[in-house]
Design goal:
Elements lengths: L4 H13 L8 H6 L2 H32 L9 H4 L5 H9 L3 H14 L12 H5 L5 H11 L8 H12 L7 H15 L1 H13 L2 E6 L5 E6 L2 H15 L11 H12 L4 H17 L14 E6 H6 L3 E4 L5 E3 H10 L2 E6 L5 E4 L8 H11 L14 E5 L15 E5 H9 L3 E6 L5 E6 L11 E2 L5 H15 L1
Parallel strand pairs: 3-6
Antiparallel strand pairs: 1-2, 3-4, 4-5, 6-7, 8-9, 10-11, 11-12
Helix pairs in contact: 3-6, 5-6, 6-8, 8-10, 9-10, 16-18
The structure holds zinc ion (2 copies).
């Protein structure tokens, strides 16, 4: 018969309290071998997990007795506290964060707090093999069942994670759980990505102290670009790279001698970038500079067009269409990974237009070719019209059209397609084909070039050659 909880905790407390009898003097600690230190640390952590699990169960019970419907007669309120977390914190002398973790873990450990597919997590927690923080990491990393992710799939993800709990700390456990979820939920990746992209915003408002503030909410794709610029603008001042060319070293020296704070420096740098951008040549194509952020993707996912990719420095995966668009635009370098995890290739999958071809495209198209779009070349990326993988290694100007970022996104992420159609007189027409969700018949929409020079020079030349 199991012993009552209170008696067993009292025994455990008594056993641990005898720690005074155990040699923990400076000399005794110093005399331990390295292995003994690590083993003792591991044991102490195991004890802590056992104690945390019991604490969580009790915190959960406190929460149950303080349920909102009990109002003033609830346990917490009777003791003069607004919430069970507050009562737990005051009773145990723990931090706000620890009290919250205990109550939350307790809530899922007692009774039906955990969904059916996660029940396998309870026993390892009560046995002290999985910490309450680890339980929370797995729960939040795996998320909930959805249309695309079944309870069975999540249950087997739990099984896979439990096999690894000895080797993974809480942070890694969370990342691994999130990764398993993403593997199960490839369709969800594109949805989450769209949700985040829709949530992007920049607001500028004046405050009463005469300053103007900006709140810039960035989706991961925008953040990858901005944080890269920010890091490059400020990193030498924050301790910076340790391998430097003489020119870099000189720059670092100059920056160190600068008496601006890193925040002031960053502000000035972004302002200079904006000024330079505003003055930029409107005929020069967007993002013709060196790509600085990397897209990591497996070769098999890239050629199949399904799965997910990662932006260097961003925690969540991006959808395959987004990876293909970034690679198409040449703003990001592609790093291909084999199924063994070995990097295969850097950049070679990219069919980038050369600087001269970009000039040719600017002259031919005069800006975004989408019907009605007025963006000049400096807002545009060169889109490669060949579907992925069907190219023969050649990048021809005829295979490219200029699209502004917005319309480039429509093509890759919203199912549009650009087609080239060669007329009998040898002139190429480009046409946008809408997805079936917009036009079931997918009727092509012409994409006329807006470029004045070509329009002016061509008819006259044709008349001359015909004469
Ligand atoms: Zn493209
Ligand atoms: Zn456009």
């Amino acid at each position: 018969m199991p012993r009552p909880l209170l008696a067993s905790l009292a025994d455990a407390h008594r056993a641990l309290a005898t720690i005074d009898d155990v040699a923990i003097t400076d000399e005794a600690l110093a005399a331990l071998t390295d292995d003994a230190v690590l083993e003792a640390l591991d044991r102490a952590a195991a004890v802590r997990r056992l104690v945390d699990a019991r604490s969580a169960l009790l915190a959960g019970e406190v929460a149950r007795r303080s349920a909102p419907h009990l109002a003033h007669s609830g346990l917490a309120q009777r003791h003069g506290h607004r919430t069970p977390e507050e009562l737990v914190r005051v009773t145990t002398g723990s931090s706000r964060h620890d009290a919250r973790v205990a109550v939350r873990a307790g809530a899922v450990l007692i009774e039906e707090g955990l969904p059916e597919w996660a029940q396998a997590l309870v026993a390892p927690v009560t046995r002290g093999e999985l910490s309450t923080a680890g339980l929370e990491a797995i729960r939040s990393g795996l998320g909930n069942i959805s249309e695309t992710v079944s309870a069975d799939a999540l249950a087997s993800a739990v099984g896979a994670l439990l096999a690894d709990i000895g080797a993974l700390d809480v942070d890694r456990l969370f990342r691994r759980a999130r990764q398993l979820r993403d593997d199960l939920d490839v369709a969800g990746i594109a949805d989450r990505e769209r949700g985040r992209r829709d949530a992007r915003s920049l607001r500028v408002f004046r405050s009463s102290d005469g300053m103007t503030r900006a709140t810039w909410v960035l989706d991961p794709e925008s953040a990858a670009v901005v944080t890269d610029l920010y890091d490059r603008a400020t990193s030498p001042r924050r301790g910076g790279p340790s391998f430097l060319s003489p020119r870099d070293a000189e720059l670092v020296e100059r920056m160190r001698a600068d008496d601006r704070t890193p925040e002031q420096y960053a502000s000035d740098t972004f302002l200079e970038l904006l000024r330079a951008g505003a003055d930029a040549d409107s005929r020069a194509l967007l993002s013709s500079g060196a790509p600085s952020v990397r897209v990591v993707v497996t070769a098999s996912d890239l050629s199949a067009g399904t799965g997910a990719a990662h932006l260097e420095g961003q925690p969540d995966p991006i959808s395959l269409p987004t990876a293909q668009r970034l690679i198409c635009a040449g703003t990001q370098t592609a790093v291909l990974i084999a199924s063994t995890g070995q990097p295969l290739d850097v950049g070679r999958s990219q069919r980038l237009f050369t600087a001269r071809q970009r000039v040719a495209l600017s002259v031919r198209d005069g800006g975004c070719r989408w019907a009605g779009c007025e963006r000049p070349p400096s807002w545009c990326e060169a889109h490669h019209i060949d579907p992925w993988g069907s190219h023969n290694g050649r990048t021809d100007v005829a295979d490219g059209v200029l699209l502004c970022r917005h319309h480039h996104l429509l093509v890759h992420n919203n199912g549009w397609k650009v087609e080239r159609h060669r007329r009998p007189d040898g002139i190429d027409d480009y046409r946008a084909i809408p997805p079936a969700s917009i036009d079931p018949q997918r009727r092509p929409i012409p994409m006329p070039a807006r470029a004045e020079p070509v329009r002016q020079v061509l008819p006259a030349a044709r008349r001359r050659s015909a004469a």
